[in-house]
């Protein structure tokens, strides 16, 4: 229902205008005030007042003169990407990745940390926090405003906990955002990783996706889906919508740690693929996923057959999604997709076509992710940036007022 039946106070209108300007600057890079007015529909005086406020806060800066289409010169405005940044965290089962993004959602630095075998969740969380604190110190004097973290699902946004992370235990006992906030002393925003992937994909082309149902399928160490309807995440009661990895494609298949049988991710994840390759080849020493990916790229027929079988099984889950949500676009991403993305998309399209209602298949785009870098890290950063743009005075005005005093 949102704000239905409620009016808007002057402060609400001011906050909305600030958000509109910041989002435009985030995408435009450098923009003169007259162009900000033209694209937002706001009066020139309103633009002048808001940008003056942003300049006082240090949030934006003047970049010098720009030459317009008729030769007129005007002063450019841009976000202050030199002094402020976002910490992005991507948590996986075997590693985590820390990145610094600027306010324009451009990644500046990134670092991966392996999680030792048999390390429990509390030890991994402590390792993650220490690494995050170190990265924040290394980026001084750049002020890190907030942190976004992408986590494997199922993640309960109501309880602020990872409900289940297959292959490891203990995460359900850790209230992530609260504990991280205590350690880092900045706002923290937690999101399921496939949702982050969907947000990053949407960011690439919001005009195209704004009226569509987009489903991002993360095929990595687990399998999950982020579902966007006209740019809004479909969350469900607990924030666990899209957990297709724990939908069954074989009712009497092997039991999953979630309690179900024949779960999709037990057939289609990079973890299950690595297990299947090791069982088939019986190497002297266990092969890692990277080893299996190299064998696949080299043309090993046994590994290729296992990969194509994985694609066939994944297509069963995708048909279920198409029949349930009738999406406009399905995006395939994460590490299993990255190995041979074109072959995976081709094989899945073929299998989905054989199983799907023709009219549904003909009206559903299936393609690989176009995000150049880590979709999850990018999406996590966007979650934090979104809050900063929605509530800029919470991040900048108090500091400015303290400075004035």
Provide keyphrases for this structure.
405 residues, alpha/beta, Arc Repressor Mutant, subunit A, Nucleotidyltransferase, domain 5, 3 domains, 5-stranded mixed sheet, 17 helices, 46% helix, globular, disordered C terminus
Task: Compile the SSE list and pairings.
Layout (H helix, E strand, L loop, with lengths): L9 H19 L1 E3 H8 L3 H14 L2 E8 L5 E7 L4 E8 L3 E7 L5 E8 L6 H18 L4 E9 L3 E2 L4 E2 L13 H9 L3 E5 H12 L1 H4 L3 E7 L3 E7 L2 E2 L31 H4 L1 H12 L7 H10 L2 H25 L3 E5 L1 H5 L1 H15 L2 H5 L2 E4 L6 H16 L1 H4 L1 H8 L1
Parallel strand pairs: 4-7, 7-10, 11-14, 14-15
Antiparallel strand pairs: 1-3, 2-3, 4-5, 5-6, 8-9, 11-12, 12-13
Helix pairs in contact: 2-3, 6-15, 9-11, 11-13
Report on this model:
The chain has helices at 10-28, 33-40, 44-57, 121-138, 176-184, 193-204, 206-209, 265-268, 270-281, 289-298, 301-325, 335-339, 341-355, 358-362, 375-390, 392-395, 397-404, and strands at residues 30-32, 60-67, 73-79, 84-91, 95-101, 107-114, 143-151, 155-156, 161-162, 188-192, 213-219, 223-229, 232-233, 329-333, 365-368. It has 405 residues and is α/β, with parallel strands linked by helices. It has three domains: 10-79, Winged helix-like DNA-binding domain superfamily/Winged helix DNA-binding domain (Arc Repressor Mutant, subunit A, Orthogonal Bundle); 84-195 and 376-404, ATPase, nucleotide binding domain (Nucleotidyltransferase, domain 5, 2-Layer Sandwich); 206-372, ATPase, nucleotide binding domain (Nucleotidyltransferase, domain 5, 2-Layer Sandwich). The strands form four sheets. Strands 6-5-4-7-10 form a five-stranded mixed beta sheet, with helices on both faces. Strand 5 and strand 6 (107-114) form a beta hairpin. Helix 11 packs across helix 13 (341-355).
């Amino acid at each position: 229902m949102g704000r239905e039946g409620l009016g808007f106070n002057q402060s609400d209108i001011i906050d909305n205008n600030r958000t509109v300007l910041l989002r435009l600057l985030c995408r435009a890079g450098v923009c003169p005030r007259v162009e900000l007015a033209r694209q937002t529909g706001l009066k020139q005086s309103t633009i002048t007042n808001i940008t003056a406020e942003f300049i006082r806060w240090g949030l934006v800066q003047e970049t010098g003169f720009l030459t317009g289409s008729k030769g007129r010169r005007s002063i450019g405005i841009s976000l202050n990407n030199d002094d402020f940044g976002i910490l992005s965290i991507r948590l996986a089962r075997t590693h985590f990745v820390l990145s610094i993004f600027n306010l324009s959602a451009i990644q500046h630095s990134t670092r991966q940390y392996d999680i030792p075998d048999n390390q429990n969740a509390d030890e991994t969380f402590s390792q993650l926090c220490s690494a995050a604190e170190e990265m924040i110190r290394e980026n001084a004097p750049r002020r890190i405003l907030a942190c976004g973290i992408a986590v494997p699902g199922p993640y309960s946004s109501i309880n602020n906990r990872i409900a289940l992370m297959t292959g490891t235990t203990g995460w359900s006992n850790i209230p992530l955002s609260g504990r991280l906030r205590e350690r880092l002393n900045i706002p923290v925003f937690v999101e399921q990783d496939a949702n982050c992937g969907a947000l990053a994909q949407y960011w690439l082309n919001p005009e195209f996706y704004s009226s569509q149902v987009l489903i991002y399928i993360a095929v990595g160490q687990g399998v999950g889906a982020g579902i966007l309807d006209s740019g809004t995440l479909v969350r469900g009661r607990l924030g666990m919508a899209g957990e297709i990895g724990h939908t069954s494609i074989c009712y009497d298949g092997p039991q999953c740690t979630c309690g179900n049988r024949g779960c999709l991710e037990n057939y289609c994840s990079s973890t299950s693929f690595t297990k299947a390759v090791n069982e088939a080849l019986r190497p002297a020493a266990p092969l890692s996923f990277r080893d299996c990916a190299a064998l696949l790229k080299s043309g090993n027929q046994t590994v290729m057959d296992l990969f194509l079988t994985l694609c066939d099984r994944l297509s069963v889950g995708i048909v279920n999604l198409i029949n349930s949500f009738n999406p406009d676009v399905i995006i395939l991403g994460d590490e299993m997709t990255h190995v041979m993305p074109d072959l995976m998309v081709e094989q899945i399209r073929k299998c989905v076509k054989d199983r799907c209602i023709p009219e549904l298949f003909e009206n559903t785009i299936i393609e690989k992710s176009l995000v150049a870098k880590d979709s999850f890290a990018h999406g996590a950063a966007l979650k934090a940036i979104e809050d900063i743009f929605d509530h800029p005075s919470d991040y900048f005005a108090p500091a400015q007022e303290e400075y004035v005093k």
